[in-house]
Amino acid sequence: MAMNLTRMREYRLQSIVEDLMKKYDKKLILPDQDLLNIAFHDDPERLHLLSCRWNYRTDNCKHDSSCRGETAALLHGSRYVFVKTDKGPAYRAAFLAMKEYQLGTSLEANFINKLQERLRSTRKTPCVTKFLAFLEDWRGLARELDIERGWNCTTICGSVREHTNAKSILQYKKKLK
């Protein structure tokens, strides 16, 4: 959940949640989420619901109509899907690819390609199928960001020794455009 902390302080969310915690202590299953749901139940105008593009959940993988064909931009990792393989192999693959990604390196080569490898080698589920379909858009965005950072084929593809001649580098650069 994205929050404007200044507004939440003005709303006195901390004290509201503390009071609710005392009242519902033993009845809460997912305490943080339950308390926020209770707190905002009477003030729904204080919430801005995100579209599934910015709050892509496992349920969205199963119900095509819920996202109107939008590519996910933010994955919602509820229900342990990032940490338990059996809960959501696609989400786990994304988590591991991001965990291995080193900031400041090519997103396409070091995140998107790794994610694609992981997705292709994991158990096929509706989310794996969806994420594989999203990869084209994710790759395009990663490539744009890499280009903005001034990374060329050498940076993206590895060392120049991997390229046998200048022609192969030029061909790869054309693919980037």
TrEMBL record:
Keywords: Glycoprotein, Glycosyltransferase, Membrane, Signal-anchor, Transferase, Transmembrane, Transmembrane helix. Gene3D superfamilies: Spore Coat Polysaccharide Biosynthesis Protein SpsA, Chain A. InterPro entries: Glyco_trans_8, Glycosyltransferase_8, Nucleotide-diphossugar_trans. One of its GO terms (molecular function) is UDP-D-xylose:beta-D-glucoside alpha-1,3-D-xylosyltransferase activity. Its main location: membrane. It is found in: Membrane. Its EC number is 2.4.2.42. It is a single-pass type II membrane protein. It holds the Pfam family Glyco_transf_8. It is an enzyme of class 2 (transferase). GO terms for cellular component: membrane. One of its GO terms (biological process) is protein O-linked glycosylation via N-acetyl-galactosamine. It catalyses: 3-O-(beta-D-glucosyl)-L-seryl-[EGF-like domain protein] + UDP-alpha-D-xylose = 3-O-[alpha-D-xylosyl-(1->3)-beta-D-glucosyl]-L-seryl-[EGF-like domain protein] + UDP + H(+). Glycosyltransferase which elongates the O-linked glucose attached to EGF-like repeats in the extracellular domain of Notch proteins by catalyzing the addition of xylose. Belongs to the glycosyltransferase 8 family. This is UDP-D-xylose:beta-D-glucoside alpha-1,3-D-xylosyltransferase.
